[in-house]
Design brief:
Chain B: Pfam families: ABC_tran. The structure holds 2 protein chains of 2 kinds. Chain A is 73% helix and 1% strand. Chain A is built from 14 helices and 2 strands. In chain A, helix 4 packs parallel to helix 6. In chain B, the strands form 5 sheets. In chain B, strands 6-7-8-3-9-10 form a 6-stranded mixed beta sheet, with helices on both faces. Classes of the chains: A mainly alpha, B alpha/beta.
């Protein structure tokens, strides 16, 4: 073998400046979020109140949970437009199950399983049907919403089951923090673990980065993609269950247009819709970034139509910043 | 012979730094009218960086560019195009869905009243450009339906139509079969006779000697030498490029190979392959020669489970059933495909992730792996194979061809593969790294592995222990090492 004086692998240099720079590029969203909180607290004295903060946490938990599922699909290079409809379907189904007297915990598990199967359907159509994810989930967006209306059979169903309500939208020992926030934190923890520490998570990135290379490297790509859609379905179902509990009502009208909010959160969180990129924490931060901005606009009394314009602009700016940062790195 | 020619373009004391790397320093380079100048050097020597500066993709940090006597600032690709500098990359920049004519005229379709495209004129002009080049082609064909050789012609036609004065060809012959190479070389010579300045980048040294007037050699971002080709020979050029001599190598060993590892019987596919039978022995390097389209790539893809086939296969005497690449990998059979960027590497992932992607399963419990262990193993492999990376987390996209190939070898070693199948093991890899890849192959068989090598380069297959020659989907001959000769192989290939 060639005698080689070059260093084949330089030892990592731990210069202080370098590590600060690395920290900034890695956690720019967190920094941005902190700045946003500071700015908002100057704009409105109602912002940094206990009630408002508790409200922000609660309101954005559902979006964040669904966004985590979406992120998984987006990492494989896909997209799941059906999450809002799945959430509504979960809502209606859980209400009917509880109405029939099924145990609340069994209902929750059963509904999440069924929603995983709904997601599985998406995955099957994408992998074995070889239909593009956008088209598949655009179709199931209508199908699942339609099923939700069919199951609802007319009127809204009120839910009185205490266990159900306290698990999914109850108080916790920490004042002002409700169970959805805890559920989000647990889900986030699991997702960070899956995406960083498991072979499945690693394969998702490989599939999104280059699916043919992943296949020839032995990744069971169809199985992995189907699993990602199933998980997205289950989490959309969980989101729907939480909404149901918060309003004590099952309804097919829930989560209209949520797919777009969720995709916005994932994209603001730096994931690429081309696949292969994205982090769990960032997707949640993305959701909260949008949520906080919406909150401050509400507090300052900006009307809802201008809010829509501002929200759209923020998505564009956020994505622009992310791509600029990525380009600079390259 | 070229001294009297006018200098078209001159790059003076060009320097370019990337974070942590001096890609180019103080490099002079000139292109004269009506000459072919070859740019040689190992991967990472700075050839691509030079050409990217010329075509406006990078801005130089130091130095100046003088084009036809005037200092120019090529700040973006548009500027280069307007000046008449065209670069033909290895990855062609054609739109597969558009026709030949549309691709040639892309960006300035001839127009009639109100901006309506003048299709008739476009077709006629496209035909004219191609005929000037000495090619006849249906200009209404979708470019995506053309073979790679013809696509290249279209790309060159596009440059000529844009009135290019300098044409840079980056590894133009790498993806081509032999007869197409000859046609391309004829075309390049024709362009020279029309007064264009041509920069020819190639790892294939015979071509460099065949067509170039001058050679500029770069090494580690610095100019080694520029001299007339007639003053050089192969050995001297290699010495200039790598700073050492590369002797003729042998792949595999002279030992008798007795233990059968893989045996293939009656392998057929629906499209091309017909009743393929062969054995692979322990410690052996088996070469497969054949023209593009002879079925060599199809054969190894079928064995690897990448494409469906029917066959009776045995591995170490036990029946082997391979339906997917996963099955093959689990049995210790690994494919290193020809197109590494498309079929083997996830370019956006780190070097480490590309090494461990396949083997990680073996080192995980319930799908959970140990990150620290992964890094340790990766570091060890990188060291063992001498992969030149700035760190394990370096993005694979930024590595040279040789280092990318080493990553894939590392991947399969990590996965404890017993049979490595190389499809064009050294395509796009420079001379120095080539020798290292050969060494790795030898080391692998010495440790008890078996290797199949497919190559378009005859010298490469002639280094192997034994050779199968394929033509039209069949194995037409098997030649033991003692009886190797180029004539014999070529005779069966056609």
């Amino acid at each position: 073998m060639k005698v080689n004086q070059e260093t084949t692998l330089s030892t990592p240099s731990f210069s202080f400046q370098h590590s600060i720079l690395k920290f900034i590029t890695k956690s720019y969203l967190l920094i941005f979020l902190c700045l946003l909180v500071i700015v908002c607290s100057f704009i409105s004295d109602k912002f940094l109140t206990f009630n408002n903060l508790s409200n922000i946490l609660l309101q954005n938990s559902v979006i964040s949970i669904i966004a985590l599922g979406q992120l998984m699909v987006v990492i494989t290079g896909g997209i799941d437009l059906s999450v809002g409809s799945i959430a509504a379907l979960a809502s209606v189904l859980s209400a009917s199950l509880l109405g029939m007297g099924v145990d609340p915990i069994v209902s929750i598990i059963l509904v999440m399983l069924l929603m995983a199967i709904a997601g599985l359907g998406n995955g099957l159509a994408v992998t074995y049907g070889k239909i593009t994810p956008f088209v598949v989930t655009l179709a199931t967006l209508t199908i699942y919403r339609g099923l939700a209306y069919i199951f609802q059979v007319g009127s809204l169903v009120t839910i009185e089951d205490r266990t159900f309500l306290s698990i999914l939208a109850g108080k916790t020992i920490i004042g002002g923090v409700y169970t959805p926030v805890i559920i989000l934190l647990i889900t986030l923890g699991i997702f960070i673990f899956i995406l960083r520490m498991t072979t499945f998570g690693r394969r998702l990135y490989a599939i999104g980065g280059n699916s043919e290379a992943a296949r020839l490297a032995g990744a069971p790509i169809n199985r992995d993609i189907i699993t990602a859609y199933a998980i997205s379905g289950a989490l959309a179902g969980l989101g729907g269950l939480i909404m149901t509990a918060r309003l004590s009502t099952g309804s097919a009208l829930y989560a209209q247009g949520y797919e777009l909010d969720v995709i916005a959160a994932v994209v603001v969180g730096g994931a690429s819709l081309m696949g292969g990129k994205g982090f769990a924490l960032n997707a949640v931060l993305g959701a909260f970034l949008i949520g906080i901005i919406r909150n401050i606009l509400n507090l300052t009394g900006v009307a809802s139509y201008p809010q829509m314009v501002i929200q759209g602009l923020i998505i564009l700016v956020a994505v622009l910043l992310t791509t600029l940062a990525a380009r600079k790195k390259a | 012979m070229t001294d009297s020619h006018e200098v078209l373009l001159e790059m003076r004391s060009i320097g370019k730094n990337f974070p942590g790397v001096k890609a180019l320093s103080n490099v002079d380079f000139s292109i004269r009218k009506g000459e072919i100048i070859a740019l040689c050097g190992e991967n990472g020597a700075g050839k691509s960086t030079m050409m990217k500066i010329l075509s406006g993709i990078y801005k130089p940090d130091a130095g100046e560019i003088v084009f036809q006597g005037e200092a120019v600032h090529i700040t973006k690709p548009d500027v280069a195009q307007k000046l008449g500098i065209a670069i033909i990359h290895q990855e062609l920049s054609l739109v597969p869905e558009l026709t030949v004519a549309e691709n040639i005229f892309i960006g300035d379709y001839p127009q009639k009243f109100l901006g309506v495209v003048d299709w008739r004129k476009m077709r006629k002009n496209a035909q004219a450009v191609l005929e000037d080049m000495g090619f006849k082609m249906d200009v209404d064909q979708r470019v995506g339906d053309l073979g790679i050789a013809k696509q290249q012609i279209v790309e060159i036609a596009k440059a000529l139509h844009k009135k290019a004065k300098v044409v840079i060809l980056d590894e133009p012959t790498a993806p081509l079969a032999n007869q197409d190479v000859d046609r391309l070389i004829d075309l390049v010579l024709k362009l020279r006779s029309e007064g264009l300045g041509i920069v020819y980048i190639s790892h294939r040294l015979p071509e460099v000697f065949q067509i170039s007037d001058r050679v500029t050699v770069l090494k580690d971002g610095q100019l080694v030498s520029t001299c007339d080709t007639k003053d050089l020979d192969r050995d001297r050029l290699i010495k200039l490029m790598v700073g050492r001599e590369v002797s003729n190598m042998r792949l595999g060993s002279v030992d008798n190979h007795e233990t059968k590892v893989l045996s293939v019987r009656g392998l057929s596919t629906s499209s091309l392959l017909e009743d393929i039978n062969f054995d692979l022995y322990k410690g052996e390097v088996l070469g497969i020669a054949g023209l593009v389209g002879s079925g060599r790539t199809e054969l190894v893809r079928a064995i690897f489970g990448a494409d469906p086939c029917t066959a009776e296969m045995e591995l170490n005497g036990k029946p082997l059933s391979v339906k997917t690449p996963r099955d093959a990998i689990n049995q210790g059979i690994a494919l290193l495909p020809e197109d590494r960027k498309e079929q083997a590497l996830v370019l956006g992932m780190s070097a480490l992730e590309n090494i461990t992607i396949s083997g990680l399963n073996n080192f995980s419990k319930f799908g959970i792996f140990n990150k620290r262990k992964e890094e340790e193993d990766g570091r060890e492999l990188v060291k063992k194979l001498q992969v030149r990376v700035s760190g394990l987390s370096q993005e694979t996209r930024t590595l040279s061809g040789g280092n990318q190939q080493k990553l894939i070898i590392a991947r399969w070693l990590y996965n404890r593969a017993k049979v490595l199948i190389f499809d064009e093991p050294t395509r796009g890899i420079d001379v120095g790294a080539k020798a290292e890849i050969y060494n790795l192959i030898n080391q692998f068989v010495k440790e008890g592995g078996s290797v199949i090598v497919i190559s378009s380069e005859l010298p490469e297959v002639l280094m192997c222990d034994r050779l199968l020659v394929m033509a039209r989907g069949k194995i037409v001959n098997e030649i033991p090492h003692e009886e190797f000769s180029e004539e014999k192989v070529i005779q069966y290939m056609f």
